[in-house]
Amino acid sequence: MIERTPVLNIATHVILTMGLIFLLLPMYLVIVAASHSLQDVVSVPPNLLPGDQLWINLQAAWDKGHLGQRFVTTFIVAMGVMTGKIVLSCITAFGLVFFDHRLKMPIFWAIFITLMLPLEVRIVPTYAVAANAFLPFQTLLDLSGLTWLVQALSGIEIKLEWNLLNSYAGLIMPLVATATGTFLYRQFFLTIPEELVEAAKMDGAGPLRFLWDVLIPLSRVNIAALATIMFVYAWNQYLWPLLVVTDQSYAMIAVELSRLVPKFSATGGEVPKWHIAMAGTLIVMLPPIVVVVFMQRWFVRGLINTDK
Amino acid sequence: MRRAYFKNNWVAGLMVAPQLIIVFTFFYFPTSQALYWAFTLEQPWGGGNTWVGFDNFRTILEDPYYWSSIWVSVVYAVGSTVLAVGMALTLAIFADRQLAGYKLYKVGMIWPYAIAAPAVGLAFRFIFTPGAGIMMFVNQLFPHLWNPVDDGNQAMAMVIVAGAWKQVAYNFIFFLAGLQSIPRSLIEAGAMDGARVLRRMRDIQLPLLAPTFFFVLVINITDSFTDSFGIVDTMTAGGPSRATNLMVYKIFNDGFQGLDYSGAAAQSIILMLLVIALTFVQFRYIERKVHYT
Lengths: 308, 293
Prior knowledge:
The complex is a heterodimer.
Chain A: H1 6-34, H2 38-41, H3 54-64, H4 67-97, H5 104-112, H6 123-131, H7 135-144, H8 146-154, H9 168-176, H10 180-190, H11 194-202, H12 207-218, H13 220-235, H14 239-244, H15 253-258, H16 274-294, H17 296-307
Chain B: H1 9-38, E1 40-42, E2 49-51, H2 55-61, H3 64-95, H4 102-110, H5 117-128, H6 133-141, H7 152-180, H8 184-192, H9 197-208, H10 210-226, H11 229-235, H12 247-257, H13 261-292
Helix pairs in contact in B: 1-13, 2-13, 3-7, 3-10, 5-7, 5-11, 7-10, 8-9, 10-13, 12-13
């Protein structure tokens, strides 16, 4: 700032460089391992310089993990989560901020509470819902006696069933069912001056016109922020796809990655093919890193605003 | 409060409905289902569930494996949080001096956020494996020094380092934002009063960062309970001999490998209560923060 602090400046650079090394070294070791043959990876002393097998290993990992197909699947899911979240959050926040009705606060809280419990915590029952997405409604009908009533009157038994296992809908919808984006949009919409709404109304614009022509153009930064966060979030999903997908044509990339080496066990077994696994790791981590590094500004802003 | 509202409430209803339906289907119903399962037991030959009261909870709480899983989760939570928050805070407060290379440091510290937990897990499993690379060399120099496949403590240490590594970037982003929202004039005033850089850090920046610090702390602990599945599954699969069997991993194992839905649901309820309690602590604090400013 104002003063000259040569010693402290050097110390600062040392500390920051050490931090960078801690964060970058694992990545470097992954690249080194991915660029050698298995023999060189398990040799002593270890090779600490990149070798020349990188391209070969990348290709091997790509073929072995069917990563081409997994890329497409994961990309579709990421896009679905991203779009679903942006559209849903936007219209929900719109409905909550620009209208006046008694249910406003209860609805806001009902949605807000979902922030508290991430998918991992309620994974077992959510899985049951994914096996039949109409289960909640069936239960409601059963409990309210409607099923019985209809059956008694018309002889038709209501049996709703919609299996979401092994489908894009099953992969996407539970990931959309939280309030992160709604919150971001609500905060943004609350900063829109009242006069803007009045002006729009005076010019004869209805609520939908106002949403489309005024709010959406104004919320471009929000959209970019949410899009980056959601892309990374969906791309990196592991536990949910692991459960929902048994048909390998819907396998997502992070799940496939973990299959490149055998599970950790005390009994030993064959030497894992580390060089190929590390090449696969490189391929899988690349797209979200590119997004985060190039969209840094929006991404950081979105992250800070959604969680606070 | 805002006055210029739109009047047609049916539009509002239409706008809010999709989210409500999806939240009901995938959030409220499963959560209530978990409660239902936790208090009932499925009949072995079908025929619905019978009410068993707190029996499932009693079974779990009498299970030494469950207590060990709680202990392991606490160790992981404390270890990874202290490491990740401590590192991120140090890096952020020095990066905030914005010396030459600031932008480069910033990108270098943010990018790990983008990496999937299983990718982090796999990378660190390779780095720490006694069967290849550096640790193999270390073991050759000092035989039997490092063997996470047998030694539970070493396996835990390895999982903690991986978990903390993944979390540093997230914390760094928040600390840096928190530091940059401190008014420049305060720091300049401190400087004019003769406070040097380190003194300003200690007496101005760190105290004013307290709300962010607290927020990050709670988020880290919550995340360590819920978000650790990918790392544990790829690195140790809960082993060796359950030394890294975190609560969320045990729920998954009991529910989907052991097919004990009632037990898994009861465990989920306990974990939910824990997470809710943490969130409340956080809200109370944020509320207080609002009062102050």
